[in-house]
Amino acid sequence: MFRRFLQDTSGNYALAIGLAGVATILVIHKAVSWLEGLILPQRQISLIRFVQDRRGNFAVGICIMLLPLIGAVGMAVDVTNINLEKSRLQLALDAASMEIAVKVNSGLTHSELQAYGDNLLKANLASLEVDTSDIPSLVYHGMATGQDGTQSLRTETRLPYRYLVPRLVGDHPTSTNILVQSRISSNSGDAACVYALNRTAPRAFEAAGSTAVSMDGCIIASNSSATDSIYVGGDASLEADCLQSSGGIVATSGLTTDCEQNRLNAWRLPDPWGNLKKPVPPILYPNPGKSDLNVRPGRYRNLDLNGDKTLEPGLYYVEGSLSVKGTVTGAGVTIFMADGGITVNGNGSLSLSAPSTGDYAGMLMMSARTNTASHLFNGNGATDLNGVLYFPYGALTYNGNNGSNSTCMRIVADTIKMSGNSNIKSDCSAELGGREARVAGPFYFSK
Fold it and tell me: What stretches pass through the bilayer (predicted)?
């Protein structure tokens, strides 16, 4: 290519051609003056007059003036070429970076992601006419999370560029590196009614058996990178606005969503309530008897709710387990599990709602981050739970004929399983104390 010919050996050939042209013009003009002396007898021809002859000086001056012009033209061409190469390199890097973003949760290591992106970059640059030694490499800087929760990944690459005409004045380099960078970010996206936080578990969210799950106005999401991160099997029926998985989705014909396409390999967002403070343990009370109809808020150990019970508004701090064997109702209630699990047995049923104000607004049931106990809603009892069930390191299971017709219930747990004949409905178009469990949104290029 002509451009690459001119760029060869740092532009020395191009400069040599220009200087040779100037010298040729100088010699020609001197020769013409000498020949004119041969034709005109009145001229005395001598070597001294040839050297001292001033005719043609205007042309010589023009040639000298062309030197900075040549340099200026070369600089202009360099600027144009650099901008062109930078634009093409940016497009190639952006395309490779977007493919890396899709693969972030695929289980590849940092070095494997970099190699994957580097191969894509080189394939994208196949149309660029560069020497083999000049083909750039992609550098992957990994993921970062901003203070506002925005996640991003950054890549960069450098392309060697040799100037068309070396700088004529001063000690300047004859080549440079074209640096381009790409940053892909993801803000928080849709609100999730059901959100499994485990990052690797298979079937982190599972709907199986003959369960029927209907979630309006929100999505079902999983942070797991497993290929069956979200699993819908058997005769299960699942309805939601959309499914979003950091891994894959395995589903039968029982799945119905309103989105154009369910989302795979989505970025994970941190625990939506990871900064929620642990409650201060209140005063310790003895367990209520079977004949006690009302239960006051406070601290309990291995709380057993047997028979008909009404929970008064407030915080219930439970050390050990919570067992429900009767009908339990209450409004403005928050149940905190310090180190044990919740079990709803037999015909036990719940009709509870979370507070709408205060430090734990919207939080109906929650567990400590050190609590890995499982929580089981089992049997034939019906539940009407309005609020957030938040068990960041605990497994939650709905089993048997347990049914829920909650107006707004949101579940955020380590893993979530719904099986048997569970029938869960939840319209989460309303907010609960301003709390929302949002998943990662679409990718976009950022600065």
Answer: 12-35, 56-77
Q: Distance between CA atoms of 206 and 250, rounded to whole angstroms?
A: 10
For 215, counting Cβ atoms within 10 Å of its Cβ (0-12 exposed, 13-18 middle, 19+ buried), the class is buried
Residue 431: closest CA among 407, 396, 413: 407
Same domain, yes or no: 418 and 269: yes
Alpha carbon of residue 422 to chain centroid: 34
Q: Are residues 285 and 372 in the same domain?
A: yes
148 shares its domain with 214: no
User: pTM, whole model, 2 decimals?
Assistant: 0.75
Q: Cα Rg for the chain, rounded, in angstroms?
A: 37
For the chain, how long is the longest CA-to-CA vector?
A: 143
- State the sign of the Cα–Cα–Cα–Cα dihedral 7, 8, 10, 15: negative
Helix axes 57-103, 110-124, angle to 10 degrees: 140
Q: Which residue has the higher pLDDT, 300 or 129?
A: 300
**pLDDT tens, position by position, 40-64:** 444 444 545 545 555 555 555 665 6
Q: Considering 138, 173, 208, which residue would you say is the last residue of a domain?
A: 173
Range of the structural domain that residue 290 is part of: 190-440
Answer yes or no: is 351 within a domain: yes
Average pLDDT, the chain: 81
Segment 394-404, tens digit of pLDDT: 999 987 666 66
Q: Which of 173, 203, 219 is where one domain is finished?
A: 173
pLDDT of 174: 74
**Tell me: the pLDDT tens digits for 325-371?**
889 999 999 999 999 999 988 677 889 999 989 999 999 999 999 99
Domain total in the chain: 2
Burial of 442 (0-12, 13-18, 19+ CB in 10 A): exposed
Across-strand partners of 316? 298, 335
Gap between the Cα atoms of 244 and 249, Å rounded: 8
Greater pLDDT, 322 or 170: 322
Beta-bridge mates of residue 188 = 440
